Amino acid sequence: MAGIRRRTVGRVSDVSAPVVALGHRFADELPEMAVSWQAAPVAEPRLLVLNDALAVELGLDPAWLRTGDGLAFLTGNRLPEGAVPVAQAYAGHQFGGYSPRLGDGRALLLGEIGGRDLHLKGSGRTPFARGGDGLAAVGPMLREYVVSEAMHALGIPTTRSLAVIATGRSIVRENLAPGAILVRVAASHLRVGSFQFARATGDDALLGRLVAHAVDRHHPEAGDALGLYRAVVGAQAELIARWMLTGFIHGVMNTDNMTISGETIDYGPCAFMDAFDPATVFSSIDEGGRYAYGNQPAIAQWNLARLAEALLPLLDDDPEQAITKATGALEEFRGRYASATLHGFRAKLGLTGSAIDDAALTSLTEDLLALLKAHRTDFTSFFRNPDAAGDEFGDWIRRWRSLDPDTEAMKRVNPVYIPRNHLVEEALAAATDGDLGPLHRLLDAITSPFDERPGLARFAEPAPPEFGTYRTFCGT
C-alpha cells in the first residue's frame, strides 16, 4: 500500500525525514501504456505555493515538503526506493481530428499515494513530446493551481494541485518566461483517449485489462465494459451540469481531456463566464467556437461516443448488438444531464423545498437565462442576489418571489467569489514578476467561495470595462 511512515534520522533537525512509498499499479497492470522515464533535473527549485491541507490528506508532512529533500521529491528528482515513474500513452480527438499517439509529452506519473495519482506537469521531455521542450511556465502552472482549487472549493469534481515549484530555468515561449512544475493529484489519469489508444493497438486483451483497471479504481459497481461505459456517461453528465451551473468554460474538451473518473482535468485555456452568453469562448485556439460554453454538453456526448467506439469489441461479440448497447447507454446522457441541471437550478434559486414541478421550474429557468443573455448580466452575481438585478427583471423576480425561495440556502450554493478572469491575470502577472501576494490573496478568497468576508469586495466584482475582450492561451 502507498503511504507514509515517520523515520528519525541521525542528525538533529526540526523536520524528521519521512519514508514515502509510491505505488505503481498503472505501470504494473498496463505496461503497454507506460514508458519508464525520469524527470529532468531541477538545479534550483523554489516553492511558489504548497497545498498544506492536501498534503496532509495524502499523508505527507508539509514541513518536510518545504525542505530541500521535499522539493527534490516534488520535482521527481529524488524519489523513494521502488518508485516507477512513467509517461502514460493515450490517443485522442483534438478539435475533432484524431491523433493516434499523444501521451504525456511533458508530464510524468510518479506513482500512487493514498490511492491517488501523484503527477508532474512541466517535468521535461518524454518520448511523447512531439517536438516540444517538455517544460512549462510559471503562469500556466499557477493558473491550473488556482482554478483547480477553486473548482474543488465549489464542490465540482476535479484533479487537485499539491504544489507549484519554480525551476530556476527560463523557457522560450513568445518571450522568455520563468519555468515551473505543477504537482497534480488525481483519482487517476485515465482518459477517453486511454481507451482509444488501447483499441488502436488491436489488442482486445489490453483493452480488457484497461477496463478492469478502470472499474476497480473508479466504478467497482460497474462490473463489465458496458457497466463501466454507463458509469462514465453518468459521471460526465453530472460533471458537465456542474460546469454549466457555475459558468465554467473548459476551453479544450478534447477526448484526451475527459476523464474516466468524472473529474475535471487539464486546465489550459479555461475561464469563468462573466456576462451570460451561451456563445462565450475565451480560448485563442478555438476560432470556430467548438468548445463554447453552450456547446459543452453536446461535445461531452460526442466524446462519449468516441469512448463507445473504443469499447465496442468488449460490449458484445455481435458488432450490431455492441452498437445497439452502446447507443442505448449513450442516450442516457441527455436525461442524466437534464436531471442534474434542473436539480442544480432548483438549489441555485432556493427552491429545493418548493412544490414547483419540473415543468414549471424549467420554464422559470429558461425565461431567466433569456433575460440574463439579453441584458448581459453577470452570471455569478445574479444568483448570489437576484433582488439586486435591474428593473428589466421585475416580472421574473415577482414570479420567483411568489414561490417563497430560501435565500439563505441560496448563499450556500451560489458563490460570491470565483476566479474572475481579470483577477487571475493580475495574480499571474505579479507572480511571474516575483510577487506572490496577489496570488495568495486570490486563493484566500476563492477557496472559501460561499463565505462573504469584509475586505474582499473586489474579488466579487465583474471585470471593469477597460479589461476588454478576454482571451486565454493553452499554456498548460
- How far is it from the N-terminal to the C-terminal residue, by CA? 31 Å
Radius of gyration computed on alpha carbons: 23 Å
- Please report the total strand number as a whole number: 13
Return the structural class.
alpha+beta
Description:
This protein has 476 residues and is of the alpha+beta class. The chain contains 17 helices and 13 strands. It has a domain at 18-186. A hairpin with a 2-residue loop joins β6 and β7 (97-99). The chain is globular, with a radius of gyration of 23 Å. Mean pLDDT is 93; it is low at 1-13.
Question: What's the short version?
Answer:
The protein has 476 residues and is of the alpha+beta class. The protein has helices spanning 25-29, 52-57, 62-65, 68-74, 138-153, 192-200, 204-218, 225-246, 296-315, 319-330, 332-348, 358-374, 379-384, 394-401, 407-411, 421-432, 437-446, and strands at residues 3-6, 18-21, 34-36, 46-50, 86-88, 92-94, 97-99, 107-113, 116-121, 160-172, 176-186, 248-249, 271-272.
Key features of this structure:
alpha+beta; five-stranded antiparallel sheet; two-stranded antiparallel sheet; 17 helices; globular; disordered N terminus
Topology:
Elements: E1 3-6, E2 18-21, H1 25-29, E3 34-36, E4 46-50, H2 52-57, H3 62-65, H4 68-74, E5 86-88, E6 92-94, E7 97-99, E8 107-113, E9 116-121, H5 138-153, E10 160-172, E11 176-186, H6 192-200, H7 204-218, H8 225-246, E12 248-249, E13 271-272, H9 296-315, H10 319-330, H11 332-348, H12 358-374, H13 379-384, H14 394-401, H15 407-411, H16 421-432, H17 437-446
Antiparallel strand pairs: 1-2, 3-5, 4-10, 6-7, 8-9, 9-11, 10-11, 12-13
